[in-house]
Every structure is written in structure tokens, then in C-alpha cells.
């Protein structure tokens, strides 16, 4: 196991919940960006949670965030330095019907982007054994 995998595994064990470990497993192994939906009140949570933040039910189902959900670019900016993202990156707020607003890296440059543009989710490998998500133009 390489050092990045060990660090990520230790961080998830120390600070992550069962939901965060499953979220990262689905990203890496299934290549799927997921949220959780409450089976009682139908509220959707991103990032995924073990309990519904609206009604506190533990009747939770995993749903995949797909291109069919018609995500749109709500806001965007650049980040010149950061721990999680490469230098420089475009960071955006993505609006996904039935999910809400989520913060995500955006593939592209500022010149390519306009508010309201259609986006699609994609899973990218950022290191061996470690995947993350971003959105790109649909």
C-alpha cells in the first residue's frame, strides 16, 4: 500500500463515518458519485449521511448523482492554493435538482464557464487507490 492510500485509509478510519467510507468506496470502486435519500421524508443529503438531517430517520437509501439529474453551474471562482485541489483550479457551486447545492471542482477555465450551464458529474483518479469527483460541461 502506498503512503497516500495509508494516509487516506487512516484519515477515514479516524475521522470518517460509515457513510464517508462508503461514499469513497463507491467513488473509487463503482465510479459513482452518490448521495443519500431518506426513505421516510424523501430528503436528499450530500455529502451522504447515516441519518436524515431533516427527520433523523435511519431509513436511508443510496442514490447515484447522474447526468440525467440536470446539474447546473450556480456560482464559480478560482482557487489559487488549496490542500485538496490542484493549483489553480476552478471551484463551483453546482445546483442539482432533488439534491441541492454542492461545492465541487469544475473542469475547465473561467473563460469557458457561464452561470446556468449544464454540467455532468465525473469521477477522477487523484492518486493510486484514491478517487474524487468533479463536474464538467455537459
What would a concise description of this structure say?
By secondary structure, the chain is of the alpha+beta class. The protein is 19% helix and 39% strand.
Observed structural traits:
138 residues, alpha+beta, five-stranded antiparallel beta sheet, 8 strands, globular
Structural commentary:
The chain is α+β, with helices and mostly antiparallel strands. The chain has one domain. Helices cover 19% and strands 39% of the residues. It is built from two helices and eight strands, in the order ααββββββββ. A five-stranded antiparallel β-sheet has the order 6-5-4-7-8. A three-stranded antiparallel β-sheet has the order 2-1-3. The radius of gyration is 16 Å and the shape is globular. The N and C termini lie far apart (35 Å).
Oligomer: single chain
Question: Could you tell me the number of beta strands?
Answer: 8
- Total domain units: 1
Main beta sheet strand tally, sense and closure: 5 strands, antiparallel
Q: Report, as a whole number of angstroms, the end-to-end distance.
A: 35 Å
What's the mean pLDDT score?
87
Low-confidence stretches: none
Q: What's the layout of helices and strands?
A:
Elements: H1 3-15, H2 18-30, E1 34-38, E2 44-45, E3 60-64, E4 71-79, E5 89-96, E6 100-106, E7 118-127, E8 130-137
Antiparallel strand pairs: 1-2, 1-3, 4-5, 4-7, 5-6, 7-8
Amino acid at each position: 500500500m502506498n503512503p497516500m492510500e495509508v494516509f487516506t485509509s487512516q484519515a477515514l478510519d479516524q475521522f470518517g463515518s460509515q457513510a464517508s467510507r462508503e461514499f469513497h468506496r463507491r467513488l473509487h470502486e463503482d465510479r459513482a458519485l452518490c448521495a443519500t435519500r431518506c426513505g421516510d421524508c424523501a430528503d436528499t443529503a450530500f455529502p451522504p449521511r447515516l441519518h436524515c438531517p431533516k427527520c433523523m430517520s435511519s431509513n436511508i437509501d443510496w442514490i447515484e448523482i447522474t447526468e440525467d439529474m440536470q446539474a447546473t453551474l450556480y456560482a464559480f471562482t478560482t482557487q489559487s492554493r488549496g490542500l485538496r485541489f490542484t493549483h489553480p483550479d476552478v471551484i463551483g457551486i453546482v445546483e442539482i435538482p432533488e439534491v441541492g447545492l454542492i461545492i465541487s471542482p469544475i473542469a475547465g477555465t473561467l473563460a469557458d464557464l457561464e452561470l446556468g450551464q449544464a454540467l455532468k458529474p465525473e469521477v477522477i483518479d487523484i492518486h493510486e487507490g484514491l478517487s474524487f469527483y468533479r463536474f464538467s460541461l455537459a
